[in-house]
Design a protein that fits this description.
This protein is of the alpha/beta class. 40% of the residues lie in helices and 31% in strands. The chain contains four helices and five strands, in the order ββαβαβαβα. α1 runs parallel beside α2.
Length: 116
């Protein structure tokens, strides 16, 4: 798994590519990245999953943990470019009701400035 980050206004976009699975060392990478962003005071985090080829149950747990970490600190984490496989996984586990998901970056970034 590779992770990079970029900013669009006050929103941090975390681009993830590869597999999010147990045992590839990637699980700690995502956790560390979220912790680092929170320590930097970032409150609006967008997880771009467009280049993720596979997510197992442990990987899904990492995404949920990232959500919890950001939310606990008063921030918001949203998902964008979820593949059909990831969408199906979120649907089966009922997590689609937890995460805000978007298909376009512009729509996702704009969603942070809209009142709930």
């Amino acid at each position: 798994m590779q992770i990079s980050e970029r900013a669009v206004g006050d929103v941090v976009i975390v681009d993830v590519s590869g597999k999010i699975t147990l045992g590839d060392g990637g699980d700690a990478m995502l956790k560390d990245k979220m912790r680092s962003l929170i320590q930097q005071g970032q409150k609006k985090v967008l997880l771009n999953l467009g280049e993720v080829s596979y997510v197992d149950s442990a990987g899904l747990g990492e995404i949920v943990q990232a959500y919890a970490t950001v939310t606990k600190s008063g921030g918001a984490l949203k998902l964008m470019n979820t593949t059909k496989r990831i969408k199906d996984l979120l649907s089966i586990t009922k997590l689609l009701t937890v995460f805000d998901t978007y298909d376009s970056e512009a729509e996702a970034v704009t969603s942070f400035s809209k009142p709930k």
